[in-house]
Specification:
Layout (H helix, E strand, L loop, with lengths): L1 E7 L2 H9 L4 E9 L8 H5 L6 E8 L6 H10 L8 E2 L2 E2 L5 E5 L2 H16 L10 E4 L3 E3 L7 H9 L8
Parallel strand pairs: 6-7
Antiparallel strand pairs: 1-3, 1-6, 2-3, 2-8, 4-5
Helix pairs in contact: 3-4
Length: 161
């Protein structure tokens, strides 16, 4: 198994998107890229910790490679926005690829350059690409948040994309 870590706005929807990718065995929501240990949601949302809301993905590279995960990443949010996604505003919602080795770093840089050159986006891509640091698992109520809401509300499938 291999790992990937992305920040693309609120982690609830991003988690849901990546759970649907064949070859992804697990997705955990949490925080990374900040300067404090064991941040909680409230502290991260204050913007004071420097963390981004992220997803940590475990995947089977024989079934899905990192480049394919990058394609899902670019498709799942607006990478041209700085410190926001839609109405969610703050550094915790920044677009970021945290890489675990030089191979991922090069693949992310190459993919970002290709996306930028494609003309797909009206503005330049603002996504950060940086080495992964500590990952802090978010509170349990954030894990599989969208699925829990559907189940709890008796609305299975109604919020699915």
């Amino acid at each position: 198994m291999a790992k990937a870590m992305f920040g693309a706005g609120c982690f609830w929807g991003v988690e849901e998107t990546f759970r649907r990718v064949e070859g992804v065995s697990d997705v955990t929501v949490g925080y990374s890229g900040g300067q404090t240990d064991n941040p909680d949601y409230e502290a991260v949302c204050s913007g004071a910790t420097g963390h981004a809301e992220v997803i940590l993905i475990e995947f089977d590279p024989k079934k899905v490679d990192f480049e394919e995960l990058l394609e899902v990443f670019w498709d799942s949010h607006d990478p041209t926005q700085v410190n926001r996604q839609g109405s969610d505003i703050g550094p915790q919602y920044r677009s970021v690829v945290f890489t675990f080795d030089e191979e991922q770093t090069e693949a992310a840089r190459r993919s970002k350059a290709e996306q930028d050159a494609s003309g797909r986006f009206a503005r330049p891509i603002a996504t950060e690409i940086t080495s992964a640091g500590p990952f802090w698992r978010a509170e349990e109520y954030h894990q599989q948040y969208m699925a829990k809401r559907r189940q709890g509300a008796g609305m299975v499938g109604s919020l699915a994309r």
